[in-house]
Write a structure and sequence with these properties.
disordered N terminus; two-stranded antiparallel sheet; two-stranded antiparallel ribbon; 240 residues; elongated
């Protein structure tokens, strides 16, 4: 049955709903891994050893390990801003480490935004050239959805703030970047989230009317399923 429900305000295509949901389920691990590879590329360029996990990446080096050992040996002095042996070199290494952290965090965020922006701009250009919505247009639509990560982080951050006593409203790479720049946690994530909402709204406007609501519903269904399956079921098994 092609159309489940159809009136002047709502059209639902079961065939495309199923297809879109499947695509969105697979898009979650693809987007997540590509995001982490953005971190890894920068970390490797800075000389760190890296390991890819299903929802994160870890990075280390001999200098980073030595810095941690030095911190543990002089924890009291460091936390109380007291001088200790090699304190000058420690402070220099800490500044370098924080700068490296900033670049590594930026690598993942930039990669995700770049891919989403590229897909969106190509979609806008292609829609100006043709009135027909082709498979290439759909591919660009789903590439543009890389921007949705900013919306997810924004929503999850707000929910965490509402239910957690620690008062943390925002999390993720954007919040980490803000802290390293001595900015409020929301200062990067909030504007990126607003831009992401605008991008998603414009994408929906470009989609043919007969599939517009099918696409919206597929996002509501497919994205949470994809997130759950990758983060809690298959991801930990494939990339612990």
């Amino acid at each position: 049955m092609k159309v489940l429900f159809h009136n002047n305000l709502f059209k639902l295509n079961i065939k495309y709903l199923f297809l879109f949901v499947i695509v969105l389920i697979f898009l979650t691990p693809i987007g997540t891994i590509l995001h982490e590879l953005g971190h890894i590329i920068v970390a490797k360029s800075l000389g760190y050893r890296t390991v890819l996990h299903h929802s994160s990446m870890s990075w280390d080096s001999d200098s980073k390990s030595n810095l941690m050992s030095l911190y543990l040996e002089n924890k009291f002095e460091i936390e109380n801003n007291l001088s200790f042996k090699n304190s000058r070199q420690y402070n220099i290494d800490i500044i370098k480490l924080n700068n490296d952290k900033l670049l590594i965090y930026l690598g993942g965020v930039f990669q995700t935004i770049f891919i989403g922006s590229l897909g969106f701009l190509l979609l806008l250009y292609k829609r100006r050239k043709s009135e027909y919505f082709t498979i290439k247009d759909w591919i660009l639509v789903f590439i543009s959805l890389f921007w949705s990560r900013e919306i997810l982080n924004l929503i999850v951050g707000i929910i965490r703030g509402l239910f957690n006593k620690d008062g943390i409203y925002f999390y993720g790479d954007e919040a980490k970047i803000s802290k390293l720049l001595n900015l409020p946690d929301w200062s990067i994530l909030l504007p990126l989230g607003v831009i992401a909402v605008i991008v998603i709204v414009l994408i929906i406007k470009l989609i043919p009317n007969k599939l517009k609501y099918t696409f919206i519903l597929s996002g509501i269904i497919g994205s949470p399923i994809g997130y759950y399956l990758w983060m809690y079921v298959f991801g930990p098994l494939m990339l612990p």
